[in-house]
Amino acid sequence: NAGVTQTPKFQVLKTGQSMTLQCAQDMNHEYMSWYRQDPGMGLRLIHYSVGAGITDQGEVPNGYNVSRSTTEDFPLRLLSAAPSQTSVYFCASSYSRGSYEQYFGPGTRLTVT
Amino acid sequence: AQSVSQHNHHVILSEAASLELGCNYSYGGTVNLFWYVQYPGQHLQLLLKYFSGDPLVKGIKGFEAEFIKSKFSFNLRKPSVQWSDTAEYFCAVNARGLTGGGNKLTFGTGTQLKVEL
Fold first, then answer.
1. pLDDT at res. B101
2. Which residue in the set B43, B94, B110 is minimally distant from A104, CB to CB?
3. Using a CB-CB distance cutoff of 8 angstroms, which residues of chain B are in contact with residue A104?
4. Looking at the DSSP assignment, which residues form a beta bridge with residue B100?
5. Which of B4, B5, B44 is the best residue to mutate to test the A interface, defined by the most A CB atoms within 10 Å of its own CB?
6. In the list A8, A33, A104, B49, which could disulfide-bond A48, CB 3.0-4.6 Å?
7. How far apart, in Å, do the first and last CA atoms of chain A sit?
8. Which residues of A touch B104 (CB under 8 A)?
């Protein structure tokens, strides 16, 4: 299994540009989520999904959109990037029932200038 | 909503010293508790987890943590640290039984551990 994969690893955007961060998992996990990691603030939940076709907001959803058309993929879209969205983004997945251990991807380092 | 506090933001130890990192959470219900580690330039990896049963849990690389329900704490310990333990450590809580996504993890702000030779 590849586990949780994320692309790209690094990205630089100009303010106002849009982009999609990709996340995929091959473990047949129902639950997937996106976090952003900022110095001194830990990881904060942006959006999550409990299954295909079902998404919901986390702690810091503003400026981000998600969709979940398949079990495997959970892309995160920035519609109009802002410097405040400069961060490291992690995708994670887990089974919905029983063990709640989440598996994390390698992260995407995004810089918005 | 639940919250997680990690009291030590930066810790510097010499090799072979003992380690204890504090973690307290606020949530009155049943919780699952985790410690994750992030080595420099890498993604988060699970160190250990507590769901139920023996409150003293052992994880990888000689780490252990004790769940003290009365204190809402889940402190991480290691008797003798190594240089390779230099990393950032995150405590996380999942509140069981919440509607709308019982898998949601709330993370602490992290503790940066530096182990010196």
1. 52
2. B43
3. 36, 43-45
4. none
5. B44
6. A33
7. 36
8. 33, 45, 48, 58
Q: Has residue B93 got a pLDDT over 60?
A: yes
CB A48 within 8 A of CB A67: no
Locate the chain B residue with the closest alpha carbon to A37. Answer: B109
Region A35-63: mean pLDDT is 93
Q: How confident is the model at residue A99 (pLDDT cuts 50, 70, 90)?
A: low
**Rg of chain B over CA atoms, in angstroms?**
14
Whole-angstrom Cα distance, residue B25 to residue B108?
9
- Residue A21 bridge partners (DSSP): A76
Task: Residue A79: name the closest of A31, A1, A22, A16 by CA.
Answer: A16
Q: What is the pLDDT of residues B54-82, one digit of tens each?
A: 999 999 999 999 999 999 999 999 999 99
What pLDDT is recorded for position A95? 84
CA B46, B51, B53, B54 dihedral sign is: positive
Q: Select the residue from B9, B21, B105 to test the A interface by mutation, using most A Cβ atoms within 10 A.
A: B105
Å from B8 to nearest chain A CA?
A: 11
In chain A, what percentage of residues exceed pLDDT 70? 96
Q: A-chain residues within 8 Å CB-CB of B103?
A: 31, 33, 48, 50, 94, 96, 100, 102
What are the structure tokens assigned to B65, written together? Answer: 């943590």
pLDDT band at A97 (very low <50, low <70, confident <90, very high): low
